[in-house]
Structure formats: C-alpha cells, structure tokens
Amino acid sequence: MTDTTQKSHAEIDESITSRQEMSGLQAALKTQPFWVFIALIAIGVVMSFISDVFLTERNFFNITRNFAFFGIMALGMSAVICTAGIDLSVGSLMGLAGIVTGLVMQAGYGIGFGFIACMGAAAIVGLINGILIAYVRMAPFVVTLGMLAMARSIAMVISNNKMIYDFGPDQELFEWIGGESVFGVPNPVWVLMILTVVFWWVWRYSTWGRWVIAIGGNADAAKLAGIPVERVIVSVYVLCSCCAGLAAFLLVGWFGSVTNALGLTYELNVIAATVIGGANLMGGVVYAFGAPIGAALMELIRNSLLLAGIDALWQQFFVGLFLILAVLLEQIRNRGRS
Amino acid sequence: MSLLQLEGVTKSFGAIHALQGIDLTISEGEAVGLMGDNGAGKSTLMRIIAGNFLPTAGKIRINGSEVHFNKPVDARNNGIEIVYQDLALCNNLTAAANVFLGREIRKKFGPISYLDHKAMFEKAAELFRELKSETRPRDLVKQMSGGQRQAVAIARTRLSDPKLVLMDEPTAAISVRQVAEVLNLIHRLKDSGHAVILVSHRMPDVFEVCDRVSVLRRGTKVADKQISETSPEEVTGLITGAIENA
Ligand SMILES: Nc1ncnc2c1ncn2[C@@H]1O[C@H](COP(=O)(O)OP(=O)(O)OP(=O)(O)O)[C@@H](O)[C@H]1O
Ligand SMILES: [Mg+2]
Asked: Transmembrane stretches, by residue range (chain A) (predicted)?
C-alpha cells in the first residue's frame, strides 16, 4: 500500500471514530421522557387558559408534592424494569414500612431508629424478592405478587389493624420532614430532585448502572463478560424496595398518621409512571428523568380533571389512556427507526 | 511443555453426547484450526476451555497444572480470551461499552470512582482501527452490521494480553478486507507467542494461518494433522466422513 492511501485510511478512520452520532439535543429528542415532557407542557398551557387556579403557587406546590412520592418509587422501579423484571410489592411494602416506622417511633425510639427500621424492613423485603428471582430463578411477576399479599398481611398483623398517629418524642421533626417545605419547595420534592440527579449519575457514570443496563440487554452476555448477574439483580430489588420505604417514611410524616392500608394499589401507579417515563418492560432501557416526568404527568392529569370540573371518576380512565398512548408512541418511534 | 492440554474431555447434555474423549494440545505461538460439520461439537469444546461449563469428564491443564474453570472469569484470569460464535453482545449498549463490559475503565475522584467514557471510546476506536473495521465506538450495537458486531467481539480479546485466544467462527460475517485483517491479527498473535484456536468452516483461512488442523466428527476427534502434511481435500473428506480417520 502506498503512503497516501495509508494516510487517507488513517484519516477516514479518525473521522469515523471521532464522529459523534448526534448532538446532545438531538439525542434528547429521541427519548420518550422528552416527548412526555412536551405533553406535560402542552397540558399545562391548555390548563392555564381553562383554570385560574392552575398556575398558582399553591397548586404547583400541591402537584409537585403529590407526585414526589410516586416519582421516588418510580426511580427504583425503573431499575427493576430495566432488568426486564417487575416489582408488584412496592405498594404493600409501603404499608409494611410505614407501620414498622410508626410502631418503632410510637414506642419512643426516636426518628433515627424509626428511619433505620423503615429502611431495614424495606431492604429485607427487597432481599427476599431479589434472592428468589436471581438465585431460585422464579418469575419476578410471581414472586412480587406473592410478596404483595404477604407484606400487606404482615402490616395488618403487626399493626393489629389499628391506626398509628403518635410518633413519640420526634413527632414534630418527623411531620416536618414529610409535610413541610424548604425555600417554598416541599421536602419530598427536594428528595425526589436529589435522587433523580443521583440516579442520573448512576446510570451514566457508575459501573453498577452500566451492569444493570447490560443485564437488561442480554443477561447471558453480561454473565459471560464476568458480571455478577445474580448479585446485581438482588441489589436492584433491594434498591427498588428502599425507594418505596423512603416514600413511605415521607408520606407517613406528611399524613401524620399511618394505617396498614398505606400504599394500597400504588404499585399500579408507580409502574404506569415508570412506563410513561420511557421504561421498556422488555428491559435494557432506563432514564433517570423518566421517573419524575412520568409521575408528574399522572398527577397533572388528576389535577387538571379536578380543576376542569370533570368528574373524578374519569381519572383512572385518563391515566390508563396515557399509559397506552405512551407505549404506542414508543412503538411507533421504534418502527420508524428500524 | 504445552500451553493447553486437554485429556479425554467429554461433555454430555443429558442424552446428547456432544464431546467424547477429546485430547488436544496447543503450544505457545501455535495456531490450531478446529473443523467439523454443524453440530460436531466445536463450540461446545471452545466453551469448555473458556469456562462456560465444566466437562462431564476429562482434564484441562494449563502449563502442565490442572485447572477447573467454574466461570468464564476463571478462564480469563488464566489468560484465555474468546470470541463467541453468537458474539455475546448487549444490543442496547454502545460498541465501546460492549468491548469493555465487565472490565470498564474507571477514574477516581476522591473516594468515588466513575466510568471514564473518554478513555474507553478512545481505546475502543484504536482497537477497531487496528482491525481496519469501520466501527464507531459510540454506535449502539443494535444498529450495527454483522461484520461490525464481529469486530466488537474480536476487539474484546485485545484488552488483555492473553496466552490463548479462542475464535469461534470470527470471519463468518465479514468482508474480504476484514477477513484479511483477522487473519493478520492471528499471524501477529502467533509471532508474539500467543496461541490461537480457530474454528472456521472456511478452508482457505485455516490453511493460511494455522499450523495444525483438528477435525471433529460427531463429538470425537478424527484427525489432528500438521497443515503441511494434509490437504483441503483430505480435511473435507474427514469432516464429511468420506475418510474414516487419519
Ligand atoms: N446447552 C446445550 N444443551 C443441549 N445440547 C447442546 C447444548 N449445546 C450444544 N448442544 C448439542 O451439542 C452438539 C454440538 O453442538 P456445538 O454447538 O458444539 O456444534 P458446532 O460444532 O459448534 O456446530 P456449528 O458448526 O453449527 O457451530 C449439538 O448436537 C448440540 O445440539
Ligand atoms: Mg458452533
């Protein structure tokens, strides 16, 4: 080969490797969360004409606080769904974790122990889910469906079916964390914002995040590449449970009381929010910003129907409609690409 | 002493006897072609050497001492790299991410370590350049051609400095220019003292780079000959069974 052809080869190769497929904005345009975000804005604009109340600070405060709990749980759920799994037990787990927190604090142990007990209960449930799924190789749907029943039942047993509203010496602090705000932003929203950034970093920059995405793409290949697939899957379920536990801790603080019905059917909303936010049940896809955006859309629908004076009975209809539309959108875009 | 020595390696999947009493040796700087019909057991043998599963019976020795590979990482830690026939890639990750899967380059910031994307993209680009493959490190594997995917799988073996490289049909889907590069790579590996086992259905490739050829037929080894002492016709006969053994 002559010198010139070699040089041109090198040049071509250089241009190939340094060529970035697209700019950051173009990349964002291709993602589901971006389009759901556009839908959010559109609904917001329409609502600002329909209702005077919509754009008020008070309404925004309420909307953001309401979806913060779901958003936090959806962050964990998106990790599970990224591995092509599912966790149906998060709603029941909220009930269990909430009751455990209540009982510990009612007994006068203080908020530190209350928090540890809450997260500990959540972690144990996640650990059981994860071990059965990763090592015993049971289907995630079945395992977590069983856990949905068991966790709720245990919450009923240990609460003796009674409401807890006395949280001992740290009651005030506990209620402040879940119910108050800093700089006009509700505390649960701060938690959601911080966690979203943390998750964004994890998915982009951590080895663990990279491994979770790889497992979702091709678990066999991940295993052959030496990734401890079972351990990573267990950690994903523990993480999802801990997010649910954290949401329960904040929610109980806001309510100022807890019953064993806390979080009943929340799993459906969380899964819907996660899917609307761009998660793919086949696994391998995850967006940190998808979780809060999906949760925000669902809360916005609820809020808009309320302000527009439409019967609240329609709420679930529209949530379901948007869920199907979101998945449809994703499929249409995929078809366009391939 | 030979680098790798297989003694009576046997593998059964239930009632299927995929491999029966395979003996095989390979020394440093040597390339062995492994040939055989579809289902002859070539991939199974490669997977055993790469630690995907343990043999039902038989011994594997590396530099004379017996090894038991319970998982792929064990084989990798013993200096064995493999290109799988089905490539074993994650479609949803970039080419570079696949090359470095399980061996990510990390940077430290205080106690926090994070993925060094820049270093991985650059190193992957360098490996693709070396293979003369027009593979962009930032492309998702999902969107890549068969040959580009193969380049990704081959690039993975270049991350470490292995003693033995197993290639299960590495040239099945690639262009003439890249086949030449893969064969070139095998020559370079041999020159630098590496051993290579090449599984291929392409007779000319095997005859160009290999020093020896082993033929498997229905799970048994029917021939093991120096390339200089055989011919494509004889090997074809051995593969099909027209020639019983040699
Ligand atoms: N995991 C498995 N479970 C059961 N049988 C298997 C398994 N893997 C391989 N086999 C069987 O072992 C035999 C050898 O398969 P192998 O993949 O090693 O063939 P091969 O020589 O690589 O063929 P090809 O040229 O088509 O790649 C086949 O009969 C196959 O059906
Ligand atoms: Mg094969």
From this structure: 34-55, 67-86, 116-135, 141-161, 182-203, 232-256, 268-293, 305-329
pLDDT of A1 reads 39
Q: Specify the DSSP element, H or E, that contains A181.
A: strand A181-182
The answer to whether the CB of B40 is under 6 A from ligand 1 is yes
The DSSP annotation for B85-141 comes to TT----TTSBHHHHHTTTS--EEEETTEEEE-HHHHHHHHHHHHHHTT----TTSBG
The backbone torsions φ and ψ at residue A274, rounded to the nearest 5 degrees and listed phi first, read -65, -45
Asked whether the predicted pLDDT for residue A15 surpasses 60, the reply is no
Q: Cα(B50)–Cα(A206) distance, rounded to whole angstroms?
A: 28
Q: Please name every residue paired with B226 in a beta bridge, in sequence order, or none if there are none.
A: B212
Cross-chain residue pair A220–B88, CB shorter than 8 Å: yes
Take residue A256 and report the two structure tokens written for it.
């100022």
Residues 6+ apart with CB under 8 A from A152: A92, A95, A96, A260, A264
3-state secondary structure of A227: coil
Domain count, chain A: 1
* Token digits of residue B245: 């053994």
Query: In this model, does residue B144 exceed pLDDT 60?
Result: yes
Distance CA A321, CA A19 (A): 40
Supply A98's token pair: 């909430």
- pLDDT for residue A5: 45
Determine phi and psi for B59, rounding to 5 degrees: -120, 150
Decide if B60 contacts B225 (C-beta within 8 A): no
A12 neighbourhood in chain B, CB within 8 Å: 134
Whether the Cβ atoms of residue A206 and residue A79 lie closer than 8 Å to each other = no
Structural domain span for residue A321:
63-307+314-333
Tell me how many degrees the CA angle A327-A332-A334 measures, rounded to the nearest 5: 95
The CATH number of the domain holding residue A152 is: 1.10.3470
- Written as six digits, the tokens of B9 are 């390696």
Q: Are strands A181-182 and B220-226 parallel, antiparallel or unpaired?
A: unpaired
Structural contact between residues A205 and A85, judged by C-beta atoms closer than 8 angstroms: no
Question: Over the stretch B33-61, which tens digit does the pLDDT of each residue have?
Answer: 999 999 899 999 999 999 998 999 999 99
Choose one of B9, B10, B19, B42 to mutate for the ligand 1 pocket test, by most ligand atoms within 8 angstroms of C-beta: B42
Domains of chain B and any CATH numbers: 4-89+162-240 (3.40.50.300)
Residues with Cβ within 8 Å of residue A59, at least 6 apart in sequence: A53, A303, A307
Cα separation, B237 vs A23, in Å, equals 56
Could you give the CA distance from residue A49 to residue B208 in angstroms, rounded to a whole number? 76
pTM confidence score = 0.89
